[in-house]
Design a protein that fits this description.
The protein has 14 helices and 23 strands. The chain is an alpha+beta fold. The protein binds adenosine-5'-triphosphate.
């Protein structure tokens, strides 16, 4: 299948089958914002539950957090987000790397004046465009440049709209909520360094080019874990984190051939190391997750801007230090798209084609679909409902009596339901149903009394 075809097919299935819709679509949509439909909401929840289990539940040394989207505006000064990105930026349409326009001009020895307006620098840029190549990918295809701050402002608390008051931003990343709560967690929960704080939550960025479906959106969800440690342990723990995150993706069901490491060669001045895990999306390998060793930069910045002591005292030696941080940061939407890409299968059987979302069972939005063979036979409908009511306590189930059985199977294949149960006339006589397996299409008859045990074992 061609790359573009696959992306198109995934986007179309996602819409048609209730996974992802463009936001406010009846009003013409809203650029780079998406809504998750009934099955998308389930899949997204299952992804987050899986991450939480691996990151928090199974770890003695990591605790969870749920910090607010709004934070004191000073947080974003300390993080560098307010000062950053205020120069005119352009983005390479090919690889999405962003550059200050004056820096690109500098490479070809054209001097831009600091005080140039957006319009003036764009003009200068266009005059020289033939000579400018993207330093990251070498292509020559840039967006219109503009002065740009990635944070999205709100007027929260500023009822007079006084422009001199610093705005309350929607958070641009969830990790700042972790940093500012480091001391609270340390003082209220029995943790000792090394330990991590994990959280899942919304983040907002004024991305200049937001494309590629849910890969890059202006509102998105992040799953982040910040691990606080003694400086001497930073690189040893970093290697462990890298290994754990690689294994995590295999356990999530992504295949190893579709994953690769990308090492950042140019590091920000405080960083010790930075790697991304890339996934082979339909448009090529791109960043899924970032794993960074950040030194003591984050807590030092917050100590400086808040004036609070954020040092840690080693209980054994009594030595004080600012903890260093290593982090793992991944988007829910990007994981969602990776899972859709990995799971999308077209199969031909006896000349008939079917599309299956071969989700790992734990991620499947619906685990079991229950059908009466015919919708106009009340005895069958009643029995099917009884089975549905009994199983729904333990599994996400769906009852369906629309269309014919073939169409119901096809629909369940496309939303990735591992098992379908059909109640037919034999059921009324011998208390058995057919259970159909999504992947093999095998159908076997099972006793109703044994269904629950079968699913507990197989799901
Ligand atoms: P990119 O280079 O793709 O813009 P980034 O390096 O800016 O990403 P980080 O700030 O390190 O990303 O964020 C960590 C993770 O959050 C990313 O690996 C990605 O999975 C997710 N993420 C970041 N920005 C977006 C976005 N606009 N839409 C969806 N997910 C995002």
């Amino acid at each position: 299948m061609k790359k573009d075809d696959l992306m198109e097919k995934i986007v179309s299935l996602a819409k048609r089958r209730g996974f992802v819709y463009p936001s406010s679509e009846i009003y013409g949509g809203f650029a780079s914002i998406y809504d998750y439909g009934p099955y998308g909401a389930e899949l997204s929840k299952n992804i987050k539950d899986f991450w939480w289990k691996e990151m928090v539940q199974l770890r003695e040394d990591i605790v969870g957090l749920d910090s607010a989207i709004f934070m004191n505006p000073r947080v974003w000064e300390a993080s560098g987000h307010v000062a950053g990105f205020s120069d005119p930026l352009t983005e390479c349409k090919n690889c999405h790397a962003r550059f200050r326009m004056d820096h690109l001009l500098e490479i070809i020895k054209v001097q831009a004046d600091e005080k140039m307006s957006e319009e003036e620098i764009n003009k200068l840029f266009k005059e020289n465009i033939e000579k400018i190549a993207c330093p990251a990918c070498g292509k020559n295809n840039f967006t219109e440049g503009r002065k740009f701050n990635l944070l999205i402002k709100s007027n929260l608390g500023n009822i007079t709209d006084n422009p001199s008051e610093p705005p309350a931003y929607l958070r641009g990343e969830t990790c700042q909520g972790i940093y500012v709560n480091f001391k609270n967690v340390l003082d209220s929960v029995r943790v000792k360094i090394p330990f991590g704080i994990a959280q899942i939550g919304k983040a907002f960025r004024n991305e200049i080019t937001a494309r590629q479906f849910i890969f890059r959106t202006r509102e998105f969800e992040q799953m982040e874990m910040q691990y606080f440690l003694a400086p001497k342990d930073e690189m040893k723990e970093y290697e462990k984190l890298k290994e754990a995150r690689w294994k995590y993706y295999l356990k999530l069901g992504l295949s190893e051939k579709n994953l690769k490491w990308h090492k950042h060669e140019k590091l920000v001045f405080y960083a010790k190391a930075a790697y991304d895990i890339e996934y082979k999306f339909p448009f090529g390998f791109s960043e899924l997750e970032g794993i960074h060793a950040r030194g003591d930069y984050d807590l030092s910045q917050h100590a400086k801007f808040s004036g609070k002591d954020l040092t840690y005292t080693d209980p054994k030696t009594g030595k004080k230090f600012i903890p260093h941080i290593i982090e793992s940061s991944v988007g829910v939407g990007r994981t969602f798209l990776a899972v859709l890409t990995e799971s999308y299968i077209e199969e031909k059987n006896d000349g008939r084609e079917r599309v299956i979302m071969k989700f790992p069972k734990n991620l499947a939005p619906i685990k079991i679909a229950v059908f009466p063979l015919l919708r106009n036979k009340p005895e069958l409908v009643k029995k099917a409902h009884e089975i549905f009511d009994n199983l729904k306590e333990d599994f996400m189930c769906e009852f369906d009596d629309n269309d014919n059985i073939g169409k119901r199977y096809r629909r369940q294949d496309e939303i990735g339901t591992p098992y379908c149960i059909t109640v037919d006339f034999n059921t009324l006589e011998d208390g058995t149903v057919t259970v159909r397996d999504r992947d093999t299409m095998d159908q076997k008859r099972l006793d109703i009394a044994k269904l629950k045990r079968f699913f507990v074992y197989n799901l």
